[in-house]
Amino acid sequence: MTVEAAWWSSLRDGAVRCELCPLGCRLNQGREGPCGSRANVGGRMAATQYGRLVSAAVDPIEKKPLYHFHPGAAILSVAAQGCNLHCRFCQNWTISQGRDASSSPVTPAQLVARARAEGSLGIAYTYSEPLVWYEFVRDTARLARAAGLKNVVVSNGFLNREPLLDLLPLIDAANVDLKAMDDDFYRKICKARLEPVLRTIRLCREIGTHLEITNLVIPGYNDDDEHLARLVDFVADVGRDVPLHFSAYHPAHRMDAPPTPLETLRRAAALAKRKLDFVYLGNVRIRGAGDTSCPHCGELCVVREGYATRNLLSDGNCCPGCGRKLPLVAA
């Protein structure tokens, strides 16, 4: 199913300009964008991956990772092929960068019906880059919202301001992957820019979308104290209660840097906890690294062992120790 894309303009000689993300691709007739999800078909921009599903599974919400949004819930997680970044270290490169992933057709109504049948909290648009699946995410999110389901995006955040502002009112929670606090890193390693990602993070916070941030810590690239301090300072400026997830890197796709040492993750967490209330470590098994503790009294509030979650919060999402309300979203 191919539908006309949103956010584009016509140019001379049948070419079109994509206005969805900061790349601003100019496409001649018959050409596909580098994101693999938009193409010039007969002088009009087409959303070529609309309704094309390459992955679907019911996951723990913690797998996104979202630790402060309905802890312990299960959510239907779906993806299309494509991404507007080309990260050398991509963990899901077979569907984000590849063009040969098998897919099956699905309509927004069918996906919402499946989420309801699965008893899912809602729908998570994840695995690849959901924001280049824009039209399908928008249409499905509207139906999901009407059906009382939650909408979650796990994204690189590389989108223009206007499309983002149009979509965010439909999104209940977002985990944005802040890959580095370094524009050169984004240019050389991801073929993108840093500032649009920072803008997305700020807009999520301003609009009231539940926000969590993930940083993949890559040895030799973004793991020194100076870089980590700049990242923590930015997150703290957005809000000291924004959960920050440091995730361990493992060699993948086109990057062969060594895996992230546990000591590096512990060092990053220690640095972040000076200014942030909630810091987590992912892709590793370190006892207590995924637990949520009260920033006021230190009492355990949510215990996580792998993806098994034990919620100790009292009514109103309050700490069982001091009774203060924690900034979590739960039923």
**What is the CATH-assigned architecture of the largest domain?**
Alpha-Beta Barrel
Distance between the termini: 36 Å
Instruction: Give the mean pLDDT.
Output: 96
| Form type | globular
Work out the radius of gyration: 20 Å
Which CATH C-level class of the largest domain is it? Alpha Beta
CATH superfamily of the largest domain: Aldolase class I
Largest sheet: 8 strands, mixed
**Domain unit count:** 3
Class by alpha and beta content: alpha/beta
At the third CATH level, what is the topology name of the largest domain?
TIM Barrel
**Helicity level:** 10-25%
Q: Strands of the biggest beta sheet: in what spatial order? A: 8-9-11-12-13-14-15-16
Summarize this structure as a short list of keywords or feature phrases.
single chain, alpha/beta, TIM Barrel, 3-stranded antiparallel β-sheet, 8 helices, 19 strands
Structure explained in plain terms:
The protein is an alpha/beta fold and 331 residues long. The chain folds into three domains: 45 residues, no CATH class; 237 residues, TIM Barrel (Alpha-Beta Barrel); 41 residues, no CATH class. It contains eight helices and 19 strands. The strands form five sheets. An eight-stranded mixed β-sheet has the order 8-9-11-12-13-14-15-16. The protein has a three-stranded antiparallel β-sheet with strand order 1-6-5, with no helix packed on it. The two termini are 36 Å apart.
